[in-house]
Amino acid sequence: MALLLFIFSLLAPLSQTQPRAAQQLTGAWEANMTDGTLGLWIMEDDHFSITYYKRDAPEFINTEGGKWSLTPDGKITLHWEFNTKDQSQVGQQQVLAHKLESNTLIAAGKSWKRIDDGTPGALKGAWLITGRERDGEMGTMTPGARKTMKILSGTRFQWIAYNSETGEFFGTGGGAYTTKGGKYTEQIHFFSRDNARVGASLEFDYELRDGMWHHSGQSSKGEPLYEIWSTRQSLGI
User: Out of 53, 116, 156, 160, which residue is the most buried by the measure of CB atoms under 10 Å away?
Assistant: First the structure.
């Protein structure tokens, strides 16, 4: 028994190294390019999104994302579920070496500055829509290849509609958010369908009930909405 305890004491620190390293990467990161392009990289749970856009003269450029993990030697593995720049990447993966120095992440040939570490927002994580009210009745939605995902760090959010099998992309939007007093407020920084929406602020009611996010208010078109979102971890997707 003493020998087993000794072996476990040696192995435990090794088994904890990767979770700690992944936790250091969790949150939102921003890259600034010389031409005014901004990069937003959100890493939460086992999922990520990277988006490039401009805010001064609003322009959505491209977005990509999916699942991420760390290799045993600490490299970042990206597995694409969507990629508007190169649809052929969907279903493929790439291993990236990276360097983390304080609040700067060097990866993918860019320098990313930390925006947050997954706090303080109450909705951090990767979510899929699983319910939507129509004509006063809540309809259940079962995510398949066609997904609508929201991924949130502590202060940044992005929604993406896509097909993870065909690579089809249907739209995205994102920016900053806050959760306070039961209100979820979005500040739009990019919107693929209409650059004129950039700068808009949208406020919704939110409630976490049995681990699900109940989201209600008015859509960007001013129409009433009530949606239910479930974490990808709880769905096993």
Answer: 156
pTM value is 0.90
For 44, other C-beta atoms within 10 Å of its C-beta total 24
**What ranges do the domains of the chain cover?**
21-116, 125-235
Please tell me the predicted confidence (pLDDT) of residue 195: 95
* Dist. CA 46–CA 32, nearest whole Å: 25
- Residues forming a β-bridge with 146: 163
* CATH H-level, domain 21-116: superfamily: YedD-like protein (2.40.128.500)
Query: What is the tens place of the pLDDT at every residue in 10-27?
Result: 444 434 445 778 889 999
